[in-house]
């Protein structure tokens, strides 16, 4: 009964964080994308002196401001959850994770918030160049804000630059340089901000297509589409290229996630094929009706023709041995807590320390890992398999949308260069209907990244179920309900304001 109650609290806490994160990320990519588009538009205004580009910058800036405010309101509460719902997580890794969140708040958020004020209220108080500099610094601050959050998230995926301290019983920072230049962080940052640029470009493209269909604000819409098409095409290509790099980094430090994304139950001869289509089954651990592209996965994941990509069953067997090693580390750690000078325990712990997190996986089934039976170890090893069908299809829908964006922006760019995009009604309707697709792709990307990391809060270090606070199910349900109600209200307000000012269009600039 206790185990069931704990799992309920863990699941509810995970659900609450997922809901708040997914709500928050409805606003983040548009903020990232629009900030740079505003800087590009204002740069054209400063270089050409044409008033229409100033009007464009101010109009899209109004929509950016609405979205920015909603992003701030939904983002603040997320950080407090580490203390309210994930207290032991915060205690265990706060030395590393907390420093990154602090830098994000002090360096990026304050920079972003300062220059957004200058952007809106400095048009008649600053020179053209001064205001342009503020707009570019606003875009820089927006990207910096994403950088530090993604460095923190990447550390959870690949915990470098840190070590377990037997004195404090916590993970502690050993190298800030390694944490910041974590290869997963660099790849994740560029991939995520590029997805934000795609979102911002699609937003501008879709709204401009709406204006052309309505024969309103035609000159501004044509110019906006030209900016969105060129910037969006470059960004969409970057997303696909950097997605390939993400696959390579996953093969280095998150092999189970990669195998689950591919529904690869058995290790294939190198180079492994990429499954275009299949129906993975959790019941019998098979994938039915597979359609494969030979060699593709092996080349993406390993950059070689000879290196194998391990399958799920092989990784489960590897997890069993690591769990057994982790149990030995746990036993030695308990001995060291009684006698810090025990040299035998020190050696055993040093030899098995890297697998301590795996040993903690059995605490989901037994209170004392030292008493874990072979059956418990088997259960713990199998718990390292994430939900394969969810990852398999989330990844494929995301990738499919990525290629669709390339085609859409590519065609928009071609028609913009020919200056006849206004006459292609079918394409304009398609562009307008494509508005929600970047958000779907971005949310699915987070599903792959976060759901695929389970059962780990920190890969190989801390199981998710150990990180929760000592709270009741009723408390979590209450706060979850409150967040859903509050965030839904904000979303409705955001959609109402966006719709209102989009219908008014660039005329709002003259009314302010």
UniProtKB/TrEMBL annotation:
Its main location: membrane. One of its GO terms (cellular component) is plasma membrane. The chain crosses the membrane at residues 22-47, 59-76, 96-121, 133-156, 189-213, 225-243, 393-414, 426-449, 476-497. It is found in: Cell inner membrane. One of its GO terms (molecular function) is oxidoreductase activity, acting on diphenols and related substances as donors, oxygen as acceptor. Keywords: Cell inner membrane, Cell membrane, Electron transport, Heme, Iron, Membrane, Metal-binding, Transmembrane, Transmembrane helix, Transport. It comes from the Bacteria. It is a multi-pass membrane protein. GO terms for biological process: aerobic electron transport chain. It holds the Pfam family Cyt_bd_oxida_I. Belongs to the cytochrome ubiquinol oxidase subunit 1 family. This is Cytochrome d terminal oxidase subunit 1. The lineage of its organism: Bacteria, Pseudomonadati, Pseudomonadota, Alphaproteobacteria, Holosporales.
């Amino acid at each position: 009964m206790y185990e069931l109650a704990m799992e309920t609290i863990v699941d509810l806490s995970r659900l609450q964080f997922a809901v708040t994160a997914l709500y928050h990320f409805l606003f983040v990519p548009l903020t990232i994308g629009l900030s740079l588009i505003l800087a590009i538009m204002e740069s054209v205004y400063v270089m050409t002196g044409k008033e229409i580009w100033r009007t464009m910058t101010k109009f899209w800036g109004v929509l950016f401001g609405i979205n920015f405010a909603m992003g701030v309101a939904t983002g603040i509460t997320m950080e407090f959850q580490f203390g309210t719902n994930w207290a032991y997580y915060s205690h265990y890794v706060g030395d590393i994770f907390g420093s990154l969140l602090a830098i994000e708040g002090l360096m990026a958020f304050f920079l972003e918030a300062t220059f957004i004020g200058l952007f809106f209220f400095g048009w008649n108080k600053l020179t053209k160049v001064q205001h342009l500099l503020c707009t570019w610094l606003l875009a820089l601050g927006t990207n910096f804000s994403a950088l530090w959050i993604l460095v923190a998230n990447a550390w959870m995926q690949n915990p470098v630059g840190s070590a377990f301290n037997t004195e404090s019983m916590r993970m502690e920072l050993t190298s800030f340089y390694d944490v910041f230049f974590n290869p997963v962080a660099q790849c994740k940052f560029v991939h995520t901000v590029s997805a934000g640029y795609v979102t911002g470009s699609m937003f501008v493209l879709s709204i401009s297509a709406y204006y052309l269909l309505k024969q309103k604000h035609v000159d501004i819409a044509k110019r906006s589409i030209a900016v969105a098409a060129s910037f969006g095409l470059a960004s969409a290509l970057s997303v696909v290229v950097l997605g390939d790099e993400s696959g390579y980094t996953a093969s280095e430090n998150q092999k189970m996630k990669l195998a689950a994304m591919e529904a690869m139950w058995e290790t294939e001869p190198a180079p492994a094929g990429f499954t275009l289509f299949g129906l993975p089954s959790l019941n019998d651990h098979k994938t039915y009706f597979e359609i494969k592209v030979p060699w593709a996965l092996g080349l993406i994941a390993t950059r070689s023709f000879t290196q194998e990509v391990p399958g799920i069953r092989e990784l489960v067997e590897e997890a069993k041995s690591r769990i057994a090693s982790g149990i030995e580390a746990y036993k030695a750690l308990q001995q060291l807590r009684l006698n810090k000078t025990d040299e035998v325990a020190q050696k055993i712990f040093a030899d098995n320390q890297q697998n301590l997190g795996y040993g903690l996986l059995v605490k989901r089934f037994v209170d004392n890992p030292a008493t874990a039976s072979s059956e418990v170890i088997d259960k713990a090893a199998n718990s390292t398999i994430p939900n394969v069908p969810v990852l398999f299809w989330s990844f494929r829908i995301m990738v499919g949308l990525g290629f669709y964006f390339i085609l859409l922006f590519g065609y928009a760019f071609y028609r913009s260069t020919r200056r006849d995009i206004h006459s292609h009604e079918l394409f304009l309707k398609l562009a307008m209907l494509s508005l929600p697709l970047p958000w779907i792709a971005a949310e699915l990307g987070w599903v792959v990244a976060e759901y695929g990391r389970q059962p780990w809060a920190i890969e190989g270090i801390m199981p998710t179920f150990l990180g929760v606070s000592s709270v009741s199910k009723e408390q979590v349900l209450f706060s979850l309900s409150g967040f859903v109600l509050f965030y839904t209200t904000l979303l409705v307000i955001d959609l109402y304001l966006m719709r209102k000012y989009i219908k008014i269009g660039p005329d709002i600039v003259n009314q302010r």
